[in-house]
Specification:
The structure holds two protein chains of two kinds. By secondary structure, chain A is α+β, with helices and mostly antiparallel strands. Chain A has two domains: about 5-85; about 110-340, Bira Bifunctional Protein, Domain 2 (BirA Bifunctional Protein, domain 2), CATH 3.30.930.10. Chain A is about 40% helix and about 20% strand. In chain A, the strands form two sheets. A seven-stranded mixed β-sheet of chain A has the order 1-4-5-9-8-7-6. Chain A has a two-stranded antiparallel sheet with strand order 2-3. By secondary structure, chain B is of the alpha+beta class. Chain B folds into six domains: about 1-40 and about 180-205, Phenylalanyl-tRNA Synthetase, Chain B, domain 1 (2-Layer Sandwich), CATH 3.30.56.10; about 60-175, OB fold (Dihydrolipoamide Acetyltransferase, E2P) (Beta Barrel); about 230-425, Phenylalanyl-trna Synthetase, Chain B, domain 3 (Phenylalanyl-tRNA Synthetase, Chain B, domain 3, 3-Layer(bba) Sandwich), CATH 3.50.40.10; about 435-505, Phenylalanyl-tRNA Synthetase, Chain B, domain 1; about 525-630 and about 640-750, BirA Bifunctional Protein, domain 2; about 770-855, Alpha-Beta Plaits. Helix content of chain B is about 25%, strand content about 25%. Chain B is built from 22 helices and 41 strands. Chain B has a seven-stranded mixed β-sheet with strand order 29-32-33-37-36-35-34, with helices on both faces. In chain B, strands 3, 4, 5, 6, 11 and 12 form a six-stranded antiparallel β-sheet that branches. A five-stranded mixed β-sheet of chain B has the order 14-17-20-21-22. The radius of gyration of chain B is 42 Å and the shape is elongated. Classes of the chains: A alpha+beta, B alpha+beta. The interface between A and B is large, with 103 and 105 residues.
């Protein structure tokens, strides 16, 4: 081993220059600057060197050691850098391949709409109150100012429960809940919404179902006015359909007087006229009015002291308007191809 | 109701454009659903599909046929010359079959060159422009028009022949153009079921005055017996007023052209002058009338003066109505009778024996008021809906009984040449009551939220013909006109004020009244939490019909003999009688459901025809006939004893198909089994923070033996889950794979939901993990082993997870190995391996002792 320091350094650096493999780099380190490596061997030669030359030899050996260690550190960095670059470039993904989608459950669209309504009315102080679906004729009609054979009954094709002498019906609207909620809350003020399934004897078609939800609203107090009805429903429409004009006009329900219908400016054509609004520019959203004195009295409230408003709307109809659904049968058809779009 | 504006103008001046008038009516409660423009230009509406045709005032005119000559080259064509009051008559070719050689003098509709018309030879309505052309060699640039070409009807057989008095040269649009409003009449607008009624609204809304016939008199009352008839009423409630007029020596013939046109536009078919006049008065004035052949009434009275008695029918009484049907009556039908029996169903239809025929000479015009409820029942039961029955069924004020009949009698005189007998036969036992309403300004503000001046309120009400008088300070005494019996309370008057004042002018406000306590709805909120948890577990919510058929739900039972024995009919099935619908829309929907599962399986099956996998849930009520003494939340004292069913809430689940969808990467597509379902249920129970729940094996007639469990909470069963019995699955034609179903009593489940639960602290000391595998007999339930480990491990045993179940060699048959990972951890100190080993040992000993477990080595 008479290789001098310079030769060693040159040889080592030459080798290092071609190393890119981390294992080879480690081998190089062991061979040259490891504990038993060539540099240390160089230092061991110092004993066989004359005293006069020892100083210069040692200095040179130190220089070699330093040079190789510096070169190693630099190389180590370079190797790591290249490995990283290669790794980053290796096997790029086709990001257009489909992702792994978790199996997600969804709410039925009606539930989604109902929740939105609960929220909007909840923030206006209206609490949800649910009442039964099979009702007495008394609650569903008579106490709502609709006596037997009254002309207004034409508006409600009714399912009767067998063997009850027509005293029991499937509720045709959520309005019987008005009387129930009044009788429970009397003599307190009321702000309630009454959601739930209702039933009508209809020929099922894209427009009519025998079963549908309604959401009824009722406010009873000492100073509730028709203006409050307009204000409350306008606010609802703004939250539900966004900022857009509404209009109110006279309608008829036996349990409210005066009665009104509310339209919103068509959400598709903005009033220009389209198939959705049947070229009227307006969409019929809901009906309501001031609670009829007879109904207030049937609920236990004195109409000379109390007043109230009530309104009703169809969550399925509103869902249809919002999402451009043209067939109400989709709702109970429960086809996943429909449900999974929500 | 169709309202021709030309007819409306008989009663009121129209002072604003028709589309604005329609809006005004709509806003006031008479919704105009459609406006049909006949020859009159329609206002152009952006985006409108309207393709109506306006008749050019300069080019489409009333013409007169001057001569009809043969066409030189075609036998079936004619050459006509038509005069139109300006210059020379025009010459043209026509093929109309109702023009014959030599005809002249007929009034026709002439369209000159350049007119826009509907093409009579094309289907539907296609507009063409009339151009000069040669028809078989003869030049022709004008046309005599058919109804189709003008858009009046689809009639194209012949051209329109106008009455002789049609003024030649007049623009045809002035002669026959019109606008027809289609108005929806709500039940509270019974008064507007006539042209006059709509005119009154128009007058009130536009500040005009209604024009009535000169001799219109609603105060006139006659005598029950006259020289030509005697009227008897047995029950004034059923018939508060019955009147009759006699018109002698009429000539039955077709009605004049204009009257026919009006009836057609109002949707009635012309028949003959007498019948048309009764219809014309019904449409025009809202009062249905009936015309009897007076001579047949006299014949039935053996030549004497007939006596007409209005009475309730006797049970089983019969009469042939003029539609030829033999009808049988019950005591709530009102009959118009004479000495021989019924001659008409009051307000609904006359009898065939006394109907007006071409031979009729003398007509007895009946006008009457009947109990509207009775009319409605009879209309429904006899299936005889008609324009008359609709009007009677909504109620007609008795004061309005006679005046319209007098209009009819006068028309019969004018159009059928009859003579009206001077006497009015009129039995009026139950006079109309005048109902005055006391109205205060306070009421107006309290209910409507507006404060109009007394003068404004008075003006509004007077426009509606109300009598308004001062009744003290800030109060009015308001009397409705005699044609309105619908107004009898303050609320009715307030509605009138609001309508005419204009809803749009009432300011929108937010409720200023006290806010009631905001208590929320705990039952709903819990239910919504359950929906959220199920959604997080990948379950899709569905909503199915409440209707079903008993056999449909019985299909859930694999075999009927499974329902016998000690179990009886297990939940979710029920042995209670169904809530049956008296008038179902179909046999499949004849009762209300007692379980959610049957209808849900229909939905699962229909989806599995195109989808591989379903994971569905429904939350809804079922309907259980009440047993004595049973009650539920929401019952009011007055519901007591009524046949109202219980409406408990249920939750049901249906799963089937692969665990996950097939994708381009490896996915677990093994079919879902019992444990997928159980996992969803466990997640739900955990998500609702229900403590003390357990699953116990069970048998159930709809479930696969050995693959069914009960969910218990606090030891009580709240429902079942399991794999559907293969026999049941086949009946629903479901694919040949496991179908997992569950149904729970949601009220019972949610009753155990903990709103408040205690969170365990997280220990920062190290965990010692120990695995053990235990060999036990096959019949030892995993849950029992787990519970023993749990109990023996005590507070330091942090978790017990089963990670392997093994059967087979080298284990003896009827033995299985259960392997658990146990994690030991102390909340407050470092646990030593020795501590953990000691606990493990204790657990093994306990299991050896209690369930004969054997530690599996290796």
């Amino acid at each position: 081993m008479n290789e001098n320091g310079q030769a060693l350094q040159a040889r080592a650096l030459a080798q290092l220059d071609s190393i890119w493999d981390p294992a080879k780099l480690e081998e190089w380190r062991v061979e040259f600057i490891g504990r038993k490596g060539a540099v240390n061997a160089l230092f061991e030669q110092i004993n066989s060197i004359s005293k006069e030359e020892r100083g210069a030899f040692g200095k040179q050996a130190n220089e070699v050691k330093q040079a190789l260690e510096t070169a190693f550190t630099a190389r180590q960095g370079a190797v790591k850098q290249r490995a990283l670059s290669e790794a980053l470039e290796a096997e790029p993904l086709d990001v257009t391949l489909p992702g792994r989608r978790p199996q997600r459950g969804r709410l039925h669209p009606t539930t989604q709409t109902l929740r939105e309504m609960y929220k909007i009315f909840g923030e206006m102080g209206f609490q949800v109150y649910r009442t039964r679906q099979v009702e007495t004729d008394l609650m569903n009609f008579q106490l709502l100012n609709i006596p037997p054979y009254h002309p207004a009954r034409d508006n409600w094709s009714t399912f009767y429960v067998a063997d009850t002498d027509e005293r029991v019906v499937l509720r045709t609207h959520t309005s019987p809940g008005q009387v129930r909620v009044m009788r429970e809350m009397y003599p307190g003020p009321i702000r309630a919404i009454l959601p739930g399934l209702c039933y009508r004897y209809e020929q099922i078609s894209s427009r009519y179902e025998i079963q549908f939800n309604q959401l009824e609203g009722l406010a009873v107090g000492h100073n509730i006015t028709f203006g409050d009805l307009k204000g409350t429903l306008t606010e609802f429409a703004r939250r539900m359909f966004g900022e857009r004009p509404v209009r109110f006009f006279a309608d008829h329900f036996p349990f409210t007087e005066p009665s009104a219908q509310m339209d919103v400016k068509c959400i598709i054509c903005e009033g220009a006229g389209c198939a959705l609004c049947k070229y009227t520019g307006w969409l019929e959203i809901l009906g309501g009015g001031m609670v009829h004195p007879v109904v207030l009295r049937n609920g236990g409230y004195d109409p000379d002291e109390w007043s109230g408003f009530a309104f009703g709307m169809g969550p399925e109809r509103i869902t249809m308007l919002k999402h451009g659904i043209t067939d109400i049968r989709y709702f109970w058809g429960n086809d996943l191809r429909f449900l999974e779009q929500f | 109701m169709k309202v021709p504006v030309s007819w409306l103008q008989d009663f009121v001046d129209i002072t604003i454009p028709i589309d604005q008038l329609a809006d005004k009516l709509t806003f006031a409660g008479l919704e105009v659903e459609e406006i049909e423009y006949i020859g009159v230009p329609a206002p152009t509406k952006q985006g409108s599909k309207d393709n109506s045709l306006a008749w050019d005032r300069e080019k489409i005119l009333v013409g007169e046929l001057v001569e009809t000559l043969p066409h030189p080259n075609a036998d079936r064509l004619r050459i006509v010359r038509v005069a139109y009051g300006r210059g020379e008559p025009v010459r043209m070719v026509t093929g109309a079959p109702n023009i014959n050689l030599g005809d002249s003098g007929q009034k026709v509709v002439l369209a000159l060159e350049g007119s826009r018309l509907y093409d009579g030879h094309k289907d539907g309505r296609e507009i063409m422009t009339l151009k000069k052309s040669k028809i078989r060699g003869v030049e022709s640039s004008s046309m005599v028009c058919s109804e189709k070409e003008l858009g009046i009807s689809d009639e194209h057989e012949g051209i329109i022949i106008l009455p002789d008095d049609a003024p030649v040269g007049t623009p045809f649009v002035d002669y026959m153009g019109d606008v027809v409003l289609d108005v929806k009449i709500n039940p509270n607008f019974a008064r507007a079921q006539s042209i006059l009624g709509v005119a009154r609204e128009v007058a009130a809304l536009t500040g005009q005055t209604v024009r009535l016939p000169d001799d219109w008199d609603t105060a006139q009352v006659g005598a029950p017996e006259t020289d030509f008839v005697k009227i008897a009423i047995t029950d004034p409630q059923l018939c508060p007023r019955f009147s009759a007029l006699l018109v002698r020596n009429v000539e039955i013939k077709p009605s004049p052209f204009k009257l026919q046109q009006r009836l057609l536009r109002a949707g009635m078919r012309p028949i003959n002058n007498v019948v048309d006049i009764t219809n014309y008065v019904m449409i025009g004035y809202g009062k249905p009338l009936h015309a009897f052949d007076y001579d047949s009434l006299v014949a039935r009275a053996d030549g004497k003066k007939p006596t007409i008695t209005i009475r309730a029918a006797h049970a089983g009484e019969k009469m042939q109505t003029l539609d030829g049907q033999m009808r049988v009556f019950t005591p709530h039908d009102i009959l118009v009778t004479d000495s021989r029996g019924p001659v008409g169903i009051g307000g609904i239809m006359g009898g065939s024996e006394t109907e007006v025929s071409d031979a009729t000479r003398n007509v007895l015009v009946e006008t009457a008021i009947f109990d509207f409820i009775s009319i409605r029942r009879t209309t429904g039961e006899q299936k005889l809906p008609s324009e008359a029955a609709t009007r009677f069924g909504r109620g007609i004020p008795p004061s309005q009984n006679v005046a319209p009949a007098q209009v009819a009698a006068a028309l019969m005189r004018d159009l059928a040449g009859g003579g009206v007998a001077p006497a009015l036969a009129d039995n009026y036992p139950l006079p109309q009551i005048e109902s005055a309403v006391h109205l205060t300004l306070r009421d107006v503000k309290r209910i409507l939220g507006i404060e109009p001046a007394i003068a404004e309120i008075t003006d509004i009400l007077r426009r509606l013909d109300f009598k308004v008088e001062t009744a003290g300070e800030n109060a009015l005494r308001v009397t409705p006109p005699d044609y309105r019996t619908d107004v009898d309370g303050t609320d009715d008057v307030l509605e009138e004020i609001a309508r005419i004042y204009g809803y749009e002018k009432i300011p929108s406000t937010l409720i200023a009244d006290a806010l009631p306590p905001l208590d929320g709805n705990a039952a709903l909120e819990q239910e919504e939490t359950a929906r959220d948890v199920l959604g997080d577990s990948g379950m899709q919510e569905i909503v199915t019909y409440s209707f079903t058929h008993p056999a449909h739900e019985t299909t859930l039972v694999a075999s009927p003999d499974m329902l016998t024995g000690s179990n009886g009919v297990p939940f979710p099935l029920s042995s209670r009688p169904y809530v049956a619908i008296a008038n179902p829309i179909s046999p499949e929907r004849s009762v209300l459901r007692q379980t959610l599962l049957a209808n849900m399986l229909d939905i699962a099956a229909s989806n599995l025809r195109f989808a591989d996998r379903v994971a569905l849930y429904e939350i809804g009520v079922v309907f259980l006939t009440r047993r004595p003494g049973e009650n539920e939340r929401g019952d009011l004292p007055e519901d007591d004893g009524l046949p109202l069913p219980l409406e408990p809430r249920r939750l049901a689940l249906v799963l089937s198909g692969p665990r996950s969808d097939k994708t381009w990467q490896p996915a677990d597509t093994t079919p879902m089994d019992f444990f997928d379902l159980k996992g969803v249920v466990q997640d739900l129970v955990a998500g609702l923070h229900i403590a003390d729940s357990s699953f116990a094996p069970t048998t159930h007639p709809m479930l696969h033996p050995g693959r069914a469990a009960e969910l218990r909470i606090g030891g009580a069963s709240v429902g079942v889950l399991g794999e559907m019995h293969p026999l049941v699955r086949e009946r629903w034609e479901l694919p040949n794979q496991a179908v997992l179903v569950a149904e729970f009593d949601l009220d019972a489940l949610l009753a155990h939901m903990q709103e408040r639960f205690i969170v365990k602290p997280i220990s920062r000391y190290p965990v010692i993990v120990q695995d053990i595998a235990l060999i036990v007999d096959e019949n030892v339930e995993a849950e029992r082993v787990r519970a023993l480990i749990r109990q023996t491990g005590g507070a330091l045993l942090n978790s017990v997870e089963l990670f392997d179940v093994y059967r087979g060699a080298p284990l003896p048959s009827a033995r299985k190995s259960l392997a658990y990972t146990l994690k030991f951890q102390s909340p407050d100190h470092v646990l030593s391996d020795a501590d953990a080993a000691k606990l493990r040992e204790k657990i093994v000993r306990r299991l050896e002792r209690e369930v004969g477990a054997e530690l599996r080595s290796g």
